[in-house]
């Protein structure tokens, strides 16, 4: 999969489809930061600008998103996101 970072000078990166984003994005020092990695803290809050294929959020992720980004239907937690193909995202963080 290819990840593009909106509003960032960070170059697009390629990682395996359905990879654990927190593992790869940390190693590559991407603009997306991680904390708990279990969908609770919101450090990895992102907005999906465009995505070819990503799984919908789980009930637990939706619960966290309702607290952190109640009016943003494109918000996701990068630590919980599973996707493939090309994705463009913007880091919102907390
Ligand atoms: S790292 Fe805490 S919610 Fe993703």
List keywords for this structure.
2 helices, 94 residues, globular, binds FE2/S2 (inorganic) cluster, alpha+beta, 5 strands, Ubiquitin-like (UB roll), single chain
Describe the protein.
The protein is of the alpha+beta class and 94 residues long. It has one domain: Roll (Ubiquitin-like (UB roll)), CATH 3.10.20. The protein contains two helices and five strands. The protein has helices spanning 21-27, 59-68, and strands spanning 2-5, 13-14, 45-54, 75-77, 83-91. Strands 2-1-5-3-4 form a five-stranded mixed β-sheet. The longest helix has 10 residues, at 59-68. The termini are far apart. Residues 34-37, 39-44, 77, 79 line the site of FE2/S2 (inorganic) cluster (FES).
Strand order across the largest sheet? 2-1-5-3-4
Give the second-level CATH assignment, the architecture: Roll
**Approximate strand percentage:** 25-35%
Q: Could you tell me which ligands this complex binds, including any ions or cofactors?
A: FE2/S2 (inorganic) cluster
Task: State the domain count.
Answer: 1
């Amino acid at each position: 999969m290819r990840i593009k970072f909106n509003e960032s000078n960070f170059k697009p990166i390629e990682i395996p489809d359905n990879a654990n984003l927190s593992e790869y994005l940390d190693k590559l020092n991407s603009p997306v930061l991680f904390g708990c990695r279990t969908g609770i803290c919101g450090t990895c809050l992102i907005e999906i600008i465009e995505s070819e294929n990503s799984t919908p959020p789980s009930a637990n992720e939706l619960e966290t998103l309702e607290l952190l980004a109640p009016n943003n239907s494109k918000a996701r937690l990068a630590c919980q996101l599973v996707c493939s193909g090309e994705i463009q995202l913007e880091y919102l963080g907390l």
